[in-house]
Amino acid sequence: MTASRNSAVGEQARAEPTKTAKAPKSTKPSTPAPSAETAPSAKPAKAVKAAKSAKSAKPAKVAKSVKTVKPAKPSRPESQLALVRRARRINRELADVYPYAHPELDFENPFQLLVATVLSAQTTDLRVNQTTPALFAAYPTPEDMAAADPEALEQLIRPTGFFRAKAKSLLGLSAALCDRFDGEVPGRLKDLVTLPGVGRKTANVVLGNAFGVPGLTVDTHFGRLVRRWKWTDQEDPEKVEAEIAALFPKSEWTMLSHRIIFHGRRVCHARKPACGACPIAPLCPAYGEGEIDPDKAKKLLKYEMGGQPGQRLRPPADYPGSPAAPLGAAG
User: Fold this and answer.
1) Whole-angstrom distance, CA of residue 151 vs CA of residue 174
2) In which region does residue 269 sit, left (phi positive, over 0), alpha (psi from -120 to 50) or beta (all else)?
3) How many CA atoms lie within 13 A of 56 on its CB side?
4) Which alpha helices (DSSP H) does 246-317 contain, by range?
5) Longest dimension (CA), the chain
6) CA 110, CA 177: separation in Å to the nearest integer?
7) How far is Cα 32 from Cα 261, in angstroms, rounded to an integer?
8) What's the helix, strand, coil split of the chain in %, to 5?
9) What is the pLDDT of residues 232-274, one digit of tens each?
10) CA-to-CA distance for 130 and 134, rounded, in angstroms?
């Protein structure tokens, strides 16, 4: 009995040192390892924290979505007053960008402008400007042009395209000027539109730039931009003219036409507008239809905006670009 008790005591004594030897190993880390009893209680604390942060994050998400939805709410139709204000602001911005806006046809008198405008149908103003020097040298007056040989006239205006139909119009309008208006271009819309090949657009160009009578030039650029800007949804040029005329004072009509046409030719192109380089981008409901990267958009700019010659061989003195080259010139 004593021997067995002593052996049991010895075994216990041998077992205890091993327990104390292991203890230092577990206490080596500076922070004691959590016990099995405390570990579960740590998880709920983290969960509570996560739940609290999730709750606090929810209102931020709601606020964010509300902010983005609110500006989109103007799905309501724009009031006439708001439309007038926006349209006039765009006009003011364009006036700052193009203070030198002008008709891009070379002319020295109303007859030359009338002829050049008739020739500009279905071609560029540049090609017309390259063609008219020889034309006006051969036929400087309505009397001269009315007496022209049709084939000779056709050959002179051939570079502008549709030269047979245009030659017929020029012969007809020149004869009408001689027969009905004493060889002078009339300064009234109702008279101008009676001439062969002359419609409201051509008449307004002549009235606005040769006689100082305000008019809107509804060409393809003008119609395209005013529809893009949501000033009108009309397609018929006369209806477009009427609706745009109602947005602006009469005194602005001629220069408004020049600014819109300038912008359409230089920045707001039909197929790929340079949205990223557009000075009126914040006011444009169609922003994003074209290239929005500023560097890429700059490469789309044309004429003086892109560092290239303009369309006139004899531009106005305040034009910041360089003159165009004559017909047949290299480059």
Assistant:
1) 16
2) beta
3) 6
4) 253-266, 294-298
5) 154
6) 12
7) 80
8) 60, 0, 40
9) 999 999 999 999 999 999 999 999 999 999 999 999 999 999 9
10) 9
Tokens of 182: 């004493």
Burial of 226: CB neighbours in 10 Å, binned 0-12, 13-18, 19+: buried
Q: Which amino acid is at 289?
A: E
Cβ distance 119 to 143 under 8 Å? no
| 267 secondary structure, DSSP code | T
Give the tens place of pLDDT for each residue, 198-230.
999 999 999 999 999 999 999 999 999 999 999
- Is the separation of the CB atoms in 144 and 178 below 8 Å? no
Nearest to 103 by CA among 262, 301, 297, 267: 262
Cβ-proximal residues to 268 (8 Å cutoff; 6+ apart), any chain: 224, 225, 228, 274, 278, 290
How much is the pTM? 0.77
* Residue carrying structure tokens 């149908």: 121
Burial (0-12, 13-18, 19+ Cβ within 10 Å), 267? buried
Cα–Cα distance measured from residue 16 to residue 289, given in angstroms and rounded to the nearest whole number: 84
Q: Which of the two residues, 69 and 230, has the higher pLDDT score?
A: 230
Question: Cβ distance 264 to 222 under 8 Å?
Answer: yes
Q: Which residue has the tokens 């540049």?
A: 126
Per-residue model confidence (pLDDT) at position 28: 45
Catalytic residues: 201, 219
> pLDDT by residue (tens digit) across 110-139?
999 999 999 999 999 999 999 999 999 999
Which residue, 126, 132, 130, is CA-closest to 111? 132
